[in-house]
Request: fold
Amino acid sequence: DTGVSQNPRHKITKRGQNVTFRCDPISEHNRLYWYRQTLGQGPEFLTYFQNEAQLEKSRLLSDRFSAERPKGSFSTLEIQRTEQGDSAMYLCASSSPGQGYEQYFGPGTRLTVT
Amino acid sequence: GNSVTQMEGPVTLSEEAFLTINCTYTATGYPSLFWYVQYPGEGLQLLLKATKADDKGSNKGFEATYRKETTSFHLEKGSVQVSDSAVYFCALSDLYNTDKLIFGTGTRLQVFP
Reply:
């Protein structure tokens, strides 16, 4: 059990570019969550998957954001046409019913849009 | 909607002092309550949780009691250490509807020797 991993750890991009982040959950965790955390704030929920099905999306997830979990294992979060307001830490977490859906978080991907 | 309010920081204490970080919540239904900790340069870690009223969560000397009558889940520790310096987040989830976590804004704790 190596924990939740996220890549890349840091991403700097210019406004208008597209970026994609990857999250690898703890193996056999069937739920995967994405959150966004801006400086000085708590994480805010974006979306979550149970296996490959995306079950809920926050209103924070504009049309420029898309998340996938094609085989029910790793997930990707893509942001199209990035804006400076997208600069934040993007956190991924996973959980399983055997552990009461306790969420285990990855280290995050820090996005800076210049 | 559901929300969490926690005291603003930073909280600055000397080693071995008593710690309280206040957390109150607003929720429909019967949420589960959590404290997460974020050490410098690390990811969020679950510190403790309570799933029903009057439950007490505890871990590493930290405690918090789920108080439905005051809608509170205050974090306490009897004697803090320098290694407890971190940001602490109170959170709730309503497992019957969705288990997404709703976090407070976080409280930074700084402990000096």
